[in-house]
């Protein structure tokens, strides 16, 4: 199968290549696509070098599927062109996520909504993906009324320049101004742009995408998204108010049986999820599971995942696998 990666030289694009290889996805020909300035450079996939090509060249090569992670502007312009040429698009940008006709998919949560007709499928925001992996099984059993989430997001979510910024600052070098403030030894409560309502786009993504993926607009979500000097993954403190009461032991048991979720919850042994340990893994890790005694039917938990893997590349490849398993690519 011919597979295009649009944004192949970026952090997520490179991770997509890694995941495709790790999972032995049936790629017969790789078509790496990047900006004009990268055309002619090479990427290595399964020990073979491939020339980076332009989007037009890639379309002419007729890929069966294209994984995008090149920013919203590129996706808005190019996803329809690839789709019109008969290529399925799985887009990691935010461009199409809230479009009425575009499915927003976490395979373990709502993979069933994908149909043969879907030519563009949106990959959710990384901080949303890891949260809904935990919320969905609990929603089905206890029905969620409201979620309050605070995120602690890795600089890798911003990209390669941000990772370099952090490491340069840690080495005492001046930064490139990737963030509005110093990131080392600091936290910045500002991810993406501020909206009129005082929330950032990142925070609004978590609210809106969660309801779309879970198929329930009655779920109220409020978020505070924070950038922290971490590389390996995003962490989230999540407070969940249910319609129905629960036993903590049942919650831990239920989450332990969810595919793609790992419970690490052993405070007595300092056992809880951390990005340093989640990095490089595809699972979503949940711990610090405990009742919120300040109000009825409410739970606190702590969710961590590698934002480049399950938060982006792995989820996208899982969607491609879903299409392949259905014989649609
Ligand atoms: C971030 N979730 O962490 C956003 C985009 N990857 O910056």
From TrEMBL:
Keyword terms of this UniProt record: Amino-acid biosynthesis, Diaminopimelate biosynthesis, Lysine biosynthesis, Methionine biosynthesis, NADP, Oxidoreductase, Threonine biosynthesis
Record-level Gene Ontology MF annotations: aspartate-semialdehyde dehydrogenase activity; NAD binding; NADP binding; protein dimerization activity
Semialdehyde dehydrogenase NAD-binding domain residues: 2-117
InterPro entries (alphabetical): Asp_semialdehyde_DH, Asp_semialdehyde_DH_beta, NAD(P)-bd_dom_sf, Semialdehyde_DH_NAD-bd, Semialdhyde_DH_dimer_dom
SUPFAM superfamilies for the chain: Glyceraldehyde-3-phosphate dehydrogenase-like, C-terminal domain, NAD(P)-binding Rossmann-fold domains
UniProt cross-references to Pfam families, sorted A to Z: Semialdhyde_dh, Semialdhyde_dhC
Binding sites annotated in the UniProt record for substrate: 153, 227
CDD domains: ASADH_C_bac_euk_like, VcASADH2_like_N
Binding site residues for NADP(+): 9-12, 37-38, 156-157, 307
Pathway as given in its UniProt record: Amino-acid biosynthesis; L-threonine biosynthesis; L-threonine from L-aspartate: step 2/5; Amino-acid biosynthesis; L-lysine biosynthesis via DAP pathway; (S)-tetrahydrodipicolinate from L-aspartate: step 2/4; Amino-acid biosynthesis; L-methionine biosynthesis via de novo pathway; L-homoserine from L-aspartate: step 2/3
Reaction(s) catalysed by this chain's protein: L-aspartate 4-semialdehyde + phosphate + NADP(+) = 4-phospho-L-aspartate + NADPH + H(+)
GO biological process: 'de novo' L-methionine biosynthetic process; diaminopimelate biosynthetic process; isoleucine biosynthetic process; lysine biosynthetic process via diaminopimelate; threonine biosynthetic process
Entry EC no(s): 1.2.1.11
Family classification: Belongs to the aspartate-semialdehyde dehydrogenase family.
Name of the featured protein: Aspartate-semialdehyde dehydrogenase
């Amino acid at each position: 199968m011919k597979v295009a990666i649009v944004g192949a030289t970026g952090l997520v694009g490179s991770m997509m290549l890694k995941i495709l290889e790790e999972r032995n996805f049936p790629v017969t020909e790789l078509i790496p696509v990047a900006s004009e300035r990268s055309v002619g450079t090479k990427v290595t996939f399964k020990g073979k070098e491939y020339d980076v090509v332009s989007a037009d060249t890639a379309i002419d090569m007729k890929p069966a599927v294209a994984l995008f992670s090149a920013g919203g502007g590129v996706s808005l312009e190019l996803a329809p062109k690839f789709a019109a040429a008969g290529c399925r698009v799985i887009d990691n940008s935010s461009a199409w996520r809230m479009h009425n006709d575009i499915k927003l998919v976490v395979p373990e949560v709502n993979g069933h909504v994908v149909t043969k007709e879907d030519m563009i499928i949106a990959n959710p925001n990384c901080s949303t993906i890891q949260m809904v992996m935990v919320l969905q099984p609990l929603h089905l059993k206890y029905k969620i009324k409201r979620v309050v989430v605070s995120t602690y997001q890795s600089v890798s979510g911003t990209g390669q320049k941000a990772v370099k910024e952090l490491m340069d600052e840690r080495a005492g070098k001046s930064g490139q101004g990737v963030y509005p403030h110093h990131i080392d030894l600091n936290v910045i409560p500002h991810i993406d742009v501020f909206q009129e309502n005082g929330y950032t786009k990142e925070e609004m993504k978590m609210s809106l995408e969660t309801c779309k993926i879970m198929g329930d607009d009655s779920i109220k979500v409020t978020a505070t998204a924070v950038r922290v000097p971490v590389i390996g993954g995003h962490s989230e403190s999540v407070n969940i108010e249910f319609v129905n009461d629960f036993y903590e032991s049942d919650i831990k048991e239920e989450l332990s049986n969810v595919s793609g979720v790992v419970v690490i919850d052993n405070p007595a042994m300092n056992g809880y999820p951390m990005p340093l340990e989640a990095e490089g893994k595809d699972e979503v890790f949940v711990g610090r599971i405990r009742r919120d005694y300040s109000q009825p039917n409410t739970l606190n938990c702590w969710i961590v995942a590698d934002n480049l893997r399950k938060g982006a590349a792995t989820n996208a490849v899982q969607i491609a696998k879903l299409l392949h398993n259905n014989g649609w690519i």
